[in-house]
Amino acid sequence: MVWEYLSYIFWGVPWTLGLVGGGLALGFIIGLPIAIGQVYGSKGLKAALDMYVWFFRSTALLVLLFLFFWGVFPAFGFKLDALICSIVVLGLRTGAYQSQIFRGAIESVGEGQLIAACALGMSKLRGIYHIVLPQALRISLPGWSNEYAIILKDSAICFALGVQEILTRTRYVVMATHEPLLPYFIAGALFIVLTYGVTKIINIVYEKAKIPGLVGRM
Amino acid sequence: MSNEDVVLKVENVHKSYGNNKVLTGVSFEVRRAEIKIICGPSGSGKSTLLRCLNLLTQPDKGHVWLEGEEVTDPTTDISKVRQKIGFVFQEFNLFNHLNALRNVSIGLEVVKGMKKDEARKIALRELGKVGLEEHAHKYPAELSGGQKQRVAIARALAMNPVIMFYDEPTSALDPQLIGEVLDVMKKLAKEKLTSLVVTHEMGFAQSVGDEMMFMIDGKILERGTPLQVIQNPKHKITKLFFEHIAKLYMRQVR
To answer: Which range marks the domain in which residue B131 is found?
Structure first.
């Protein structure tokens, strides 16, 4: 009986990781170009990107979820599945946060190396791709791992749309058994394991990717 | 002198940042195999001048030609032009995430579209020229300042440039590391590699420089052989400048 409930909660893990993985990936696709635009773009482009970042960093996640699920997508005629909608909203939001991680990292690489790349005959874009980004992404890893931990914990709020993640399932169990302590305890433990395990892995990647000799700066 | 002998022609180049006039009409030519020295007090526009010549900085006015092709013509493919100019920076600007070998080969691969093996061979050869073959696997952070600058010179040489620009290549170095960089530059000068050198190394200027231009307030104040300009300048301000440099240099030696 208990094991049945437990495995039901455990099966929320792939859903939670789907939300987090999808959201982080979408956020990366959105955040990196925003960062590049904010560092190297024209004044107009920078202002537009600042607006985007400002908007998604200033609004409550739950409000964004409801806004997009009940408001924005239906208004454009989309009927998105709760999971997809949640991933999109998490992605739009973490994209704004990730852009600031990448922006700081790009700026810390310094413009001298990009100038040197251009002096060799690379276009600015090629210089950014071959010279700046490989270093900036390494520098971003600790901040990015932090962002993973944040979005993992934020993802629980998607229970509000009924996505079958850990918290949603735990609530069902609590409602069925009228026994809140153990299920919520397990849900909390699952989040701890997921936070700790994955940040640990990212840390190992970070250590492996370190540039030899560049100890202090990285 | 025939026109083919002129590698770089600079005509009336101006550059301002707001009210700050950095370059106020600079003109000169560099002939093939010539070693041209630029010196002058800091803020006189030397670095800006070099950057205006390959459009790392866009000049406000004036024209630049490299081997007869107008660099400042908006229709010119500036990336093609820059490949032919080896640029050595004061702060080295090596690519920190690449080892010495890849620092030299990446331009060949990305810009010239060379195969990895071929680029590697050339990179090793160029590192050999600056005496760093056995350091090819080291990353910039593992090299001394002098070694970094020699890698930077090899990186520029690998592109097979028609002219080298050196922007105060020894100014960021500890005194005991300057010699190894100057030795490489002297060797290249003796191999008749056309060069435009911003430097305050008077010994280097006198031993390999063909002409020296003294810049102040964004203009070339006087020019002549390095010996003339250093030892027998026409203007008082030039004289004061070199006296000052000599004093500094003496202090360094002691």
So the answer is: 94-160
